[in-house]
Amino acid sequence: MLNRLFHPPATTALLAVAVATLPGCARSRAEVLRDRSATVERKLVSERDRVLANPTAADHESKMSHLQTMRVGLSMINVSIAAVPLMLADEAQREVGYSVLDEALGTIDWNIPIYISSPSTAQRDYPTLFSPLTGLDFAGIRRGDKPQGIR
């Protein structure tokens, strides 16, 4: 009987059941956003490296400026993610804040290749309640302002 219990398929099944029933395995919204931010940052770095590989290109400076603008927005998102639990006491307000930040990350991800591929293509706007220069509009969220531009 003991041999059957420690047989690899039985061990795997027991381990799967044990892991599935562990409390605390769910990730917070902030953790998910931080991971998504890291993914977007890797894309920005990759595009930056690609642009830097051809410094003599006629549009080199404008591409670097575009990527730098996206990086500033990403920095404000990261600051805002950390500030949400400190600045928004109500759980419903936190959800709004995290939703706006999620959409802002999507905006950066969408806009990274826009200038790189075609400068005439219109960039996607950030959602309301977020500015790449000032971050999340905590006061607006506390007032009950509703975000616009959430897809």
Detailed description of the structure:
- Helix 3 packs antiparallel against helix 4, helix 3 packs parallel to helix 5 (91-117) and helix 4 packs antiparallel against helix 5.
- With 151 residues, this protein is mostly helical.
- The chain is built from 6 helices and 2 strands.
- A two-stranded antiparallel ribbon has the order 1-2.
Secondary structure layout:
Elements: H1 2-5, H2 8-20, H3 29-52, H4 60-87, H5 91-117, E1 130-131, E2 135-136, H6 138-143
Antiparallel strand pairs: 1-2
Helix pairs in contact: 3-4, 3-5, 4-5
Relevant terms:
single chain, 151 residues, mainly alpha, two-stranded antiparallel sheet, 6 helices, 3% strand
In short:
The protein is 68% helix and 3% strand. The chain has helices spanning 2-5, 8-20, 29-52, 60-87, 91-117, 138-143; strands at residues 130-131, 135-136.
Helical residue percent band = 55-70%
The largest sheet, given as strand count, sense and whether it forms a barrel, is: 2 strands, antiparallel
Approximate strand percentage? under 5%
Shape: elongated
> What class, by secondary structure content?
mainly alpha
Enumerate how many helices there are, as a single number: 6
What's the total number of strands? Answer: 2
Strand-and-helix sequence, N→C? HHHHHEEH
Gyration radius over CA: 21 Å
**Which residues sit in consecutive blocks of at least 5 with pLDDT less than 50?**
1-21
**Distance N to C terminus:** 56 Å
